[in-house]
Amino acid sequence: MKKSILLLAGLALWLFACVPQDATNSNSYTQEQLEVLQVLNGTFVSDADPDIVIIIESYSKPREIVFGEEKFTYVHGEMINPDDLSLSIYFIISDDGETFTMFGTGFIDDEPFNKFILYDIVILSNSSFKIKEKGDDAYNPYWIYFVKIY
Fold it and tell me: Tens digit of pLDDT for each residue in 29-80?
């Protein structure tokens, strides 16, 4: 009897250990997010304008930040535009790895700037990706390609 109880307890522990973590867990990523984040790390140039260079840092685990006055959110990485360091630009990858949400906070021409932009994202290779703004009122409804240069 003791053996069967121990066996059942061991089986239950094993089953619970094999349950995948919740994708909304703020301390982990889904497999699809990891695949995107592996590419989004480095310095990239845009095909639309070779003078546009962005530096992307993907975080090893989501980080909590304050956005606006009271809003907290978990972000997956940060983007840096070397030409404008007054903006803090962060991003979140959807659980399925198909949507890239970028948001910035800071100042442009001494005016406060807080904006969210949703993009479709497609990984093309381990060193390139493309994004397209979502929505009918998209500023640029075309795919923009980025290639890693560092």
Answer: 999 999 999 999 999 999 888 888 889 999 999 998 877 666 778 999 999 8
Please, where are the H alpha helices in 1-129?
2-18, 31-39
Q: Which two tokens stand for residue 51?
A: 């003078």
Residue 85 — φ and ψ, nearest 5°?
A: -85, 5
Show the tokens assigned to 113: 């700037």
Contact 73, 67 (CB under 8 A): yes
Any idea what the Cα angle at residue 34 is, between residues 49 and 72, rounded to 5°? 85
Which tokens sit at 17?
């250990």
Gap between the Cα atoms of 86 and 67, Å rounded: 15
* The amino acid at 83: D
Hey, is 104 helix, strand or coil? Answer: strand
Partnered with residue 105 across adjacent β-strands are 88, 114
Q: Calculate the alpha carbon distances from 111 to 55, 89, 105 in Å.
A: 24, 16, 11
Q: How far apart are CA 105 and CA 75, in angstroms?
A: 13
Q: What's the CA gap between 39 and 127, in Å, rounded?
A: 6
Closest CA to 98 of 122, 125, 133: 122
